[in-house]
Amino acid sequence: MVARRGQRIRGWLGVAGALVGLPLLAQPRGAASLPLAPTIDRVEVAAGAFAMGRDVGGEPDERPRHVVVLPAFRIDRLEVSREQYARCVRAGRCTEAWARPTWTDRRAPVTSVTWFMAAEYCRWASGRLPTEPEWEKAARGTDERTFPWGNDAPTPARAVYGQRMHLGQPAAVGTHPAGASPSGVLDLAGNVWEWTATVYDPYGYRYPTVEPTCATALAAYADLQRHGQWSFTGSMGIPHECQRVLRGGAWNYPPDGLRVTNRVHHQPTGRYPVSGFRCADDAVPRR
């Protein structure tokens, strides 16, 4: 009896050992199977001058029109997706992003990430956040168009916009090729607002050769408040602390809000379901 029991125990141990030895590929594949290396897909935007901003229409902080000269740079062809961002989380470099329970498409842009979280991802992906002028040139090109695809009004084939805040959601990145910019960059209008590296200075376009800083921005905010203004751009109140620029409009925005000159601003520590990002880098590495 004891011998038979010992044989049964040895038999179960053999089965357990065989199970442990099974290859990992036999297990269900999920987020844990994602590779840790970033996928980098950037397009180059040529060096040269372009017209930034506008003289007529839009909000006061979009004026005046001015010429900016940029060196060549590269920018992500697509917004960073939830799937791409998850790789950075698994690599131990990024903080977990938030998403609504009904947003299950991992190809959709990552949202509810702070400016700092976006910047950290871009460092992991061998890049940085684009500056505001870089973003606008990638979206607008050199012909002063109103939208990335040209001057025709937005359509559902070109962009994701006009949805209700509590019911809508962004679409998978790269699914609207009709909305491509002159450089072939997608989703620069609608889907999600995109963080840029630039400090939000409402007076910045008046001094285009001066790089906005928190000091210049805070001075501008204080000046507006001294003049009794509650808002300078639409419904966006005047900030009380240094903020960063976001560009591009989002899935809940009206068609006109998708214009390439439109600017919004938020606290860099904020997480918003309408904001995401893409990365950029220098076409020629700096020494």
General description of the model:
The chain is of the alpha+beta class and 287 residues long. It has a single domain, classed as Alpha-Beta Complex (paralog of FGE (formylglycine-generating enzyme)), CATH 3.90.1580.10. It has helices spanning 2-20, 82-90, 115-124, 132-140, 214-226; strands at residues 42-45, 48-52, 66-70, 73-76, 193-199, 231-233, 236-237, 244-247, 263-266, 275-276, 280-282. Strands 9-8-5-10 form a 4-stranded mixed sheet. Strand 6 and strand 7 (236-237) form a beta hairpin. The longest helix has 19 residues, at 2-20. 40% of the residues are buried.
By secondary-structure content and strand pairing, the structural class works out as alpha+beta
CATH fold field value: paralog of FGE (formylglycine-generating enzyme)
Order of helices and strands: HEEEEHHHEHEEEEEE
Residue share in helix: 10-25%
- The CATH architecture would be Alpha-Beta Complex
Rg, Å, rounded: 24 Å
CATH class: Alpha Beta
Major sheet description:
4 strands, mixed
